[in-house]
């Protein structure tokens, strides 16, 4: 179970949010064709935390993530990364501090596992030996060292997902500023044990290495357990935002997901459990 931050830490973090934000989203709107997908989003996202984006299908979660990595044209508003407007970033420079794990990464050429992970080295100026050491470390982090020389297309869906996670972590291995890690449904192809392993790793990267982790999830209980902050979207708008026990109430769940839950507070960690 990940360690929870103290009330004093949370209060201190909240009071200095704007000046310390790694990602600033201001009045962001996105239309696809004539259809509004995101409407007037305002968020300040901090380092050293896991921020989970929640909502039903079509709520705008993945579009918001794509907006942060310049894959979607903004209809209105602005985004800043590390204190600099996103549109002013050189892509090669931004790649040293921002990495994205998409829902699906198609790769059919018979690369070896370690060769796929090595693709994450492309923005880094390092020696070959340093690169090999980074790749080995990231494979170890995702428990795939034994598959280092396997052909990537022969892997299971869950194994491929973990290889891609090792690749994006390799990309951030020498970030000079706060690493920003965007994860779009990273547990979708994983069995239960690996889901918790990956989310525990995300939590560790945030809390022990000061990463800014933004993750799209569907499992509300996992979001409560591993995220410091929940941002809940409905029809392209933020309808709830805060610590799990504050943001995810029975009323919010019924309103957003159209499901009347049984919600209890775990006496051990004071976090919601949804049934």
Automatic annotation (TrEMBL):
It comes from the Bacteria. Residues 23-260 form the ABC transporter domain. This is Heme ABC transporter ATP-binding protein. Keywords: ATP-binding, Nucleotide-binding, Translocase, Transport. PROSITE patterns: ABC_TRANSPORTER_1 (PS00211), ABC_TRANSPORTER_2 (PS50893). Part of the ABC transporter complex HmuTUV involved in hemin import. Responsible for energy coupling to the transport system. Belongs to the ABC transporter superfamily. GO terms for molecular function: ATP binding; ATP hydrolysis activity. Pfam families: ABC_tran. It comes from Shewanella holmiensis.
